[in-house]
Design a protein that fits this description.
Elements (H helix, E strand, L loop, with lengths): L6 H28 L9 H28 L7 H5 L8 H22 L6 H8 L1 H16 L6 H24 L5 H24 L8
Helix pairs in contact: 1-2, 1-6, 1-7, 4-6, 7-8
Length: about 210
Amino acid sequence: MLAASTVPWYVARAGGLVAFGLLTSSVLLGLALSGRVRLGRWPRFALEDVHRFAGLLTGAFIAVHVLALLVDGYLPFSLTQVLVPGTAPYRPLATAVGVVSAELLAALAVTNHFRKRLSYGFWRRAHYANFAVWALALLHGITAGSDSDTTWALVVYAASGGAVAGMTAWRALRVRELPTWAIRLWPGTAGVAAAELILALALGPLHHGTG
């Protein structure tokens, strides 16, 4: 049975990992929408709704992650430390990456809210920042997460990176007049390469012991 003092820390860890999973799903859905993927009888507006809902849930679980850190009694964070990058008591640089990612995501949420008042070109260019949000969240998870040296967490990060890289390659190749075999081969190759790179970084330069 968990001691009461450890509950916030477990909630923070779970909230962060769920938020990353939802963020990855949102990025993949966005790529599918922009590439006009065909899902049989699944209507496009339903995919858009799922994409939007995944984004909202990501924000909700980031809030759970942050609130749990604020009430944690073992390694307490102040409100300033979760809002200002580089001021956290726990792995300042690694935590700063997560703060920047969350704040950039909040800025993108504002642009989505005012989408009808913005030009489509501006909104579309701003939307590309989702890749930066995802990449920073991945880096934060690997370098700050206390589970990042476990096998299951490494599998999650590698699989997520491979999926995003593969889907990005598919989206880029889909707009070009390339043979069908190339469109099928290169996304998979890109996905495997990205997964291997993430594992190499997580087990090498970015590796840290649990603390």
